[in-house]
Amino acid sequence: MPYGYVAENKKLLPHSQETSRPQYIFERFAERPSLSRLRDELHRRGWYTRAEKPWGKMALDHILRNPIYCGLIHFGKQQFKGIHEALIEESLYRRVQSVRRDRSHGATKLKREFLLKWLIRCAECGSAMTPHYTQKRYQNGSVIRIPYYRCTKSMQLNNAACPIKHINADHLESLVVGKLSELSQNEAYLKISVAEMNGDLKRKVGPLQKETQHLRNRLKEIEQETGRYVKALGQGRLAIGRLETEIASLESDRDSLQTQLDEFERKINETSIRDFNAELLFRTLRDFRTAFPSLTPPEQAEALQCVLKGVTIHPQKLALEIFELEEFHPSSQNRKNWLPGLDSN
C-alpha cells in the first residue's frame, strides 16, 4: 500500500498519521534535490517507514516518482485519473519529476580507472560495493582525492548499516592483482582449490534454481492478473477505485518478488554450475600475470573482468572467484558475449 494511504472498502483513503508526510517529502525534495538529505531530515523528525525502519534512498525515490500522490494511477505507459484523494498538487509532482536526482559522484569526478568495478561484494550484508572517493585537505589548502569502494547498503541507509562500509581502492586492487600472481605460481594449490569449489557449487545451485523458477511463475501470474483488471476496466466491468486498489497491491507484491528474484539470480550467477578445470585455470593466470603489467588502466579493468568472477570482502580477508577460461588474451573479442557492460570512468 502506498505510504500515506490505507485501503478501506476497496478504496484508497489518506492514512490518518501519514497524510501530511508525502507533501513534506515532495516539497523538501523540490527545494533541495538530495535523497540523502531528505532521508536524514525524515529521521530527525522521527518519521520512519511503516515498518519502523530507516528510509532507504530507493524507497524515497519510488515515492517521488509515484503519480498516485497527485491523484493519478499508473499502468504501463498510461495514466488514469483516480477517484482517491490526492495528497499533493499535480504541479508539485511534475516539478519533482523535472529535478535531476543526486548521483554517485565517485566514478565521474575522480579521473582514475576503478579496476574492480562491478566485481566487488560485501560479505557482511551481501551488497555490491561501488566506486567512490573521499577528500583529504592539507593545511596549505591542497586537496587530494582518495579512491575507495563503498558498500551500497551504507549508501542507501547510513554507515551503521554495515560494519565493513568501505575499503581503499588502491590497497584492494593491489591485493587482488598480487593474489592472482601468487596463484599462478602454485599449481598444486590451484588443483585443490578447484576441486573444493566444484563440490561446493553443485551443492548450492539446485535449491536456488528451484526457488528462482517459483518466483518467475508468481511474477507471470501477477502480470496476467494485472492485465485482467485493466481489461475489465476498459469493458466497464470494474470501477476505477477498485482498479487502483488492486493495482497498488499487485505492484507492491511484484516489487517484493522482483527483489527476491534478482537476489536469487545473483546467487546463481555467483554459484556457477560449470566445473573448473585446474590446468586451464593455471594457464589463464599465467598469461594474465605476463600480460597485465603492460596494459593501460582501462585494459587492466577489462582483463580483471576476464579472469575474475567476483571479489567478496570480509572484515579481515577477501575471497576471489575465478573463471575457467581459455588462455587470457587481452584483445579477445569472445569475452563480449558474457562480460557485463563496462563504461569508462
What's the layout of helices and strands?
Blueprint: E1 5-8, E2 11-14, H1 20-31, H2 35-44, H3 57-65, E3 72-75, E4 78-81, H4 90-98, H5 106-109, E5 120-122, E6 129-137, E7 143-151, H6 152-156, E8 166-168, H7 169-183, H8 187-234, H9 240-270, H10 278-291, H11 297-307, E9 308-313, E10 318-322
Parallel strand pairs: 5-9
Antiparallel strand pairs: 1-2, 3-4, 6-7, 7-8, 9-10
Helix pairs in contact: 1-4, 8-9, 8-10
Question: Your description of this structure?
Answer:
The protein is built from 11 helices and 10 strands. It is an alpha+beta fold and 345 residues long. The strands form 4 sheets. It has a 3-stranded mixed β-sheet. It has a 3-stranded antiparallel β-sheet with strand order 6-7-8. It folds into 3 domains: 5-98, Alpha-Beta Complex (Hect, E3 ligase catalytic domain fold), CATH 3.90.1750; 104-183 and 277-345, no CATH class; 191-270.
Provide a compact summary of the structure.
With 345 residues, this protein is of the alpha+beta class. The chain is built from eleven helices and ten strands.
Summed over residues and divided by their number, the pLDDT gives a mean of: 78
Q: How many structurally independent domains?
A: 3
How many helices? The count is 11
Low-confidence stretches: 102-110, 330-345
List the strand order in the largest sheet: 5-9-10
* Biggest sheet details: 3 strands, mixed
Number of strands: 10
Structural class: alpha+beta
Strand content: 5-15%
Helix content: 40-55%
Radius of gyration: 25 Å
